[in-house]
Write a structure and sequence with these properties.
The protein is built from 21 helices and 13 strands. With 557 residues, it is an alpha/beta fold. Among the domains are: 82 residues, Arginyl tRNA synthetase N-terminal domain (Gyrase A, domain 2, 2-Layer Sandwich), CATH 3.30.1360.70; 154 residues, Isoleucyl-tRNA Synthetase, Domain 1 (Orthogonal Bundle). The longest helix has 25 residues. It is globular and about 90 Å long. The structure holds arginine.
């Protein structure tokens, strides 16, 4: 139940203060001593032209028929403080949490579609730590919106077009026939650049091969397709470990046959002009550099393909929102893209949203860097995390049969949570050791708390719970359980999974406090039943919240 809304409704029903001005004023109290929620009357004072103290007093006097969840109301220095009936609220909150069961049902379908473009890897390029945030933020938003009743379309807008592929083919046909791997493809690419410095004719050869790809030449496309498959197989392994899925892998090359329509349309709408031989859409009026549509030689650009992609997505999915989870380095690109769509007259340009994030670097990255420069592969980070977890588990409890499964869940979870725990726009230095600290604000801490709940529930006998008056700590826990839906909604509204991460840490910490301060299982069957019911509600809430940020919740740890 949304107690703030209910309280607001109740206050408004008194007819003492203007409805408009009251909306959104009520907040949860920071300190339970001042009640559970309160209405500050200062803003109202301006409209009503009487003092806040007088307003609070007047309201209090009108409240002779409190709703069942409110025990008392107090007027203190211009605040109207509401004290909840804890037994009543606890019963309601825990009851409805338990009714949701172990796997919460998603919200009813709302008929809205949201496209989410994330991960969007480049063919034959290493899948590195820099891809971590787009992959997990996008993957988490995908689950969050699905849970909230949206139809979600996960799109991996593959970087599978560009002159660099002509270079790669050149290198391949010269030095690389036979089986290739991601590593060998990168080596070929690096070798091309080295050799081309000595022999500039290689660049002409690269142009020739790229032309062939463009023209659909059999030999060229066959090899290029193979490179694509090698890349997708490699990133696919990482996606599987992270629990990331996509509904479409339509990348840049998919739009080849749709580009001329876009260019024609831009011309027709009088938006295209020539600039130093290239074709651009001028955006000076909006304080932006021009958006490049065609190069001098008539070749299309990244932006051209994104225009075609946005139009295609609207036509194909009729999205309500179209998200791009892409690093903030591309802020300008997306501002230009959305502006051009707007200038083309697409009112849905306003539904296109860039969800930017900061840069990740790895603490002590040296050990994990590949031979070719400072690239740290995401697969290596995940594997290192799982191996470290294995070592920790082996130290803690010798030979659990599920040790491998647990190490995988915890090791992967540590990396994912590390990426999703801070506000997405901040640059971050990722530290494996910190991410694996079982006592810190980490994924393993959440998993550990969940497993602790499971073990308590296994030992205790659950029964019909009756809730008496609860102490502050227990009630704080109950309030957190009740905050689940608001938290998910706010994470969706801000495209910020870290809001859920923060919430889950708060919930886990509150539970551990409750666990340490209260004997959950005792001879008193009534109290035991009540505390076990709270424990189960915490367990289910943790598990479902964790799933929304891609964390697995093993029963044991
Ligand atoms: N492949 C691009 C890169 O690595 C990201 C693509 C993002 N999506 C898009 N529709 N532009 O920078």
């Amino acid at each position: 139940m949304d107690y703030l809304k209910e309280t607001e409704k109740y206050i408004i029903s008194k007819g003492v203060i203007p409805e408009e001005e009251t909306r959104g004023l009520i907040v949860y109290s920071a300190d339970l001593k001042n009640g559970d929620c309160c209405l500050p009357c200062f803003k109202l004072s301006k409209v009503m032209r009487i003092s806040p103290v007088a307003i609070a007093e007047k309201l209090k006097a009108s409240m002779t028929d409190l709703p069942p969840f409110v025990e008392k109301v107090e007027s203190v220095n211009g605040y109207l403080n509401f004290y909840f009936d804890r037994a009543e609220v606890t019963k309601e909150v825990i009851g409805s949490a338990l009714k949701r069961g172990e796997n919460f049902d998603p919200y009813p379908q709302n008929g809205k579609t949201i496209c989410i473009d994330y991960s969007s890897v480049n063919i034959a390029k290493p899948f590195h730590i820099g891809h971590l945030l787009t992959t997990v933020i996008g993957g988490s938003l995908y689950r969050i919106f699905k849970f909230l009743g949206y139809k979600t379309v996960g799109i991996n807008h593959l970087g599978d077009w560009g002159t660099q592929f002509g270079k790669l083919l050149t290198a391949y046909f010269r030095w690389g026939e036979g089986e290739q791997t991601m590593d060998s493809l990168l080596e070929l690419y690096v070798r091309f650049h080295k050799e081309a410095e000595k022999d500039p004719s290689l660049d002409d050869e690269a142009r020739m091969w790229f032309k062939k790809i463009e023209q659909g030449d059999k030999k060229a496309t066959e090899v290029f397709e193979k490179f694509k498959q090698i890349t997708l197989a490699e990133v696919g392994k990482v996606y599987d470990r992270l629990g990331i899925v996509f509904d479409s892998y339509n990348g840049e090359s998919f739009y080849n046959d749709k580009l001329s329509d876009v260019v024609d349309e831009l011309k027709r709408k009088g938006l295209l002009c020539e600039s130093e031989g290239a074709m651009v859409v001028k955006l000076d009026e909006f304080d932006m550099p021009p958006c490049l549509i065609l190069k001098k030689d008539g070749a299309s650009l990244y932006a051209t393909r994104d225009l075609a992609a946005a139009i295609y997505r609207k036509k194909t999915y009729d999205f309500d929102k179209n998200l791009y989870v892409v690093a903030y380095q591309q802020n300008l690109h997306f501002k230009q893209l959305f502006k051009v769509l707007e200038l083309m007259g697409y009112e849905w340009a306003k539904d296109c949203i860039h969800v930017p994030f900061g840069m990740v670097s790895l603490e002590g990255a040296g050990a994990l860097s590949t031979r070719n420069g400072n690239v740290v592969k995401l697969a290596d980070v995940i594997e290192a995390s799982v191996q470290k977890t294995k070592a920790i588990i082996a130290r803690k409890n010798q030979d659990s049969p599920e040790a491998d499964f647990i190490a995988e869940a915890v090791g992967v979870g540590a990396v994912v949570f590390g990426a999703l725990s801070g506000g997405r726009i901040k640059d971050m230095v990722f530290s494996l050791d910190k991410a694996l600290n079982f006592d810190g604000e980490t994924g393993p801490y959440l998993q550990y708390t969940h497993a602790r709940c499971c073990s308590v529930l296994e030992k205790g006998k659950e029964g019909e719970a009756e809730f008496g008056d609860t102490d502050d700590e227990t009630f704080a826990l109950v309030r957190l359980i009740n905050a689940f839906d608001d938290t998910v909604l706010s994470a969706a509204e801000k495209y910020e999974p870290s809001i859920i991460s923060r919430y889950l840490i708060d919930l886990a910490q509150a539970f551990n406090k409750f666990y340490i301060d209260h004997r959950i299982i005792s001879d008193d069957t009534k109290t035991t039943a009540a505390r076990l019911a709270i424990t189960r509600a915490v367990k289910n809430t943790l598990k479902n919240g964790m799933a929304l940020i891609l964390l697995k919740a093993p029963q044991k740890m």
